Structure of glutathione transferase:
Amino acid sequence: MPLPGDGQKLTLGYWSIRGLASPVRMMCLVAGVPLEFHSYPLHDKEGGGYDGSAWFAQDKPPLARINPLINLPYLIDGNVLITQSQPVYLYLARKCKMAGSTPDEEIKVEQTLAQVYDLRNALIDLVYGSLEDFEAKWESYLDSRAQSHFAKLEAWLEVMGTPFLAGDKPTVADFHCWEMVDVHDIFAKEKGKPSVLTKYPKLAKIHSAIKALPELASFWNDENGYKLKINNKMAHFK
Ligand SMILES: N[C@@H](CCC(=O)N[C@@H](CS)C(=O)NCC(=O)O)C(=O)O
């Protein structure tokens, strides 16, 4: 198991899904920061349910003795062990010079990152909730709840007059926003609904600009990268 102080490379621990890990992996590729992905499988259990013991029984207890807040994702950098996705994102973004280059950009990064996280949490509530709720709510989620988040982000870009959420260059907020636009595009297609990519041209531009980054060329076909499932096995949209 990965432990602080063991390795040279940064290590990201997470389930073997895109989930909260993709923005980290994309940022590191773009910045040329080597990252080891320590992925945890979730197996089907005989008779139903899931076995996540590689995380819950094996690695979590010793890591919790070092950082009692431990959760997935976590990041190990030398002797440092960080958990909670948003502090992990910001820590890495500072390392990758993707956290804004002026105080004005930094606060724009923090606000838009938080806004994107609200959107992600709305999706997570829907897809990991009860099947009954999912069936009852997915359409209004796509038609209305998710739209309110995307409309805010589109309007933000309009008002700020910048191509990316905090300025002229992509930051961590754009990478998480990219992931959410992409995931909602796939979700909408699966459900026969209009894509956010057609409705929000400024977000669509961020999506295509990041998709075209040469450093990410290998990511799109990586079985441990973009090709992973979006959500875990118990989700109603994977
Ligand atoms: N607020 C936390 C939520 C983390 C979370 O919910 N992690 C889920 C996967 S996305 C998990 O299964 N954690 C493992 C655990 O509870 O030990 C974050 O943003 O990192």
